[in-house]
Amino acid sequence: MPRYSVIAFDADDTLWHNEQLFLDARARSLQILDGVLPRHELVAALERAQLENLQFFGYGIKGFVLSNLDMVARLAPERLSGHHVAQMLELAKRMFEHKPLPIEQAEPCLRRLHGRWPLWLLTKGDPLDQKAKLRHSGLEHFFDRVEIFDSKTPQAYAALLRREGVRPHEFIMVGNSLRSDVLPVCQIGATAVHVPSAVEWEHERVEPAELADCQFHSLQHLGQFADFVEATHQNATP
Ligand SMILES: [Mg+2]
After folding, report:
1. N or C: which end of the chain has fewer CB within 10 A?
2. Measured in angstroms, how far is the CA atom of residue 123 from the centroid of ligand 1?
3. What order do you get walking across the sheet with 171-175 strand by strand?
4. CA-closest candidate to residue 104, choices 21, 232, 220
5. Do residues 73 and 56 both lie within one domain?
6. Residue ending a domain, choose from 68, 97, 126
7. What distance in Å separates the CA atoms of residue 144 and residue 118, rounded to the nearest whole number?
8. How far apart are the CA of 181 and the centre of ligand 1, in A?
C-alpha cells in the first residue's frame, strides 16, 4: 500500500471552475463572428480551431482566441474585419481578468491536508493564465510547489518526480481529467484519484479501453479526498 510523501492537485475544474468560462467564451465568439461564415460552418470551425492549433498556441486564453481568428481568417479572409479582431482580443482580456470561482470543497480539503504533507499544484497550459487564476483563487498559500506543464504526459510526471526525488508509489494525484490527471499518473505507477467535474472538455475524454489497465480511484467530489488520503496512507506499511 502507498505511503504518501507528496499530494498533488490538478487546478482547472478540480479546485476552481474553468470549463464554463470557455463555454461562455465560445458562445461569445459565435456572437462576435456571426455572419462571417454560415452559422453551422462557424460552429464547426470554432470547435476544430483550438484542437488543430494546440501544437502552435497551446492551451489557454491566448490559444483559444488566436485559434478562432486563425481558423476564420483562413476560411473567410474577405469577411473578417478589424472590428471582429478587436472584439475577439477584448474577449481575451475579459477572460484573463475573470476571477475563477473555487469548487466548494476545495478550501476545506486543502486546509485539512496542509502542513501534514507537501501539497503540489500540477496544471497545464499558459503559465500567465494559470498563475493569474491561482493568484485570484485565494488558494495559493496552501501549495509548496506549483508546476505548469505544457502537456500532462507520463514523461512529464515522471521527470518531475525524478527531479524532486519522489518515488511514484509515494505520490498521489487528484483531478477531474481522466486524460491528464488519471491515465498518465497510473502509467508511472503512482496513485490517481478521479473527481468528476460538472462540465468536461471533449478533448479530455478517454475511451474506456484506454483505462483497461489503469487502477485508479473515483470519488464523488473533492470533499471525500482528505478522508481517502488519510485512510490509504494509514494502511500503508512503513
Ligand atoms: Mg482539470
Report:
1. C
2. 7
3. 145-149, 119-124, 6-9, 171-175, 191-194, 217-218
4. 220
5. yes
6. 97
7. 6
8. 7
| Residue ranges making up the domain that contains 126 | 6-17+100-234
* Digit-coded pLDDT (tens) for 196-218: 987 776 667 777 788 888 889 99
Crossing angle for the helix pair 82-97 and 127-137, to the nearest 10 degrees? 40
| pLDDT tens, residue by residue, 160-202 | 999 999 999 999 999 999 999 999 999 999 999 999 987 776 6
Rounded distance from Cα 111 to ligand 1 centre (Å): 20
118-159, pLDDT tens digit by residue? 999 999 988 999 999 999 999 999 999 999 998 999 999 999
State the burial class of residue 18 (Cβ atoms within 10 Å of its Cβ: 0-12, 13-18, 19+). buried
Domain final residue pick, 97, 119, 137: 97
Whole-prediction pTM value? 0.87
Give the amino acid at 29.
Answer: S
Centroid of chain to Cα 108: 20
163 Cα–ligand 1 center, Å: 23
SS3 38: coil
Query: How far apart are the CA of 90 and the centre of ligand 1, in A?
Result: 25
Mean pLDDT, the chain, integer: 92
1 within some domain:
no
Domains contained in the chain, number = 2
How far apart CA 193 and CA 216 sit, in angstroms, is 6
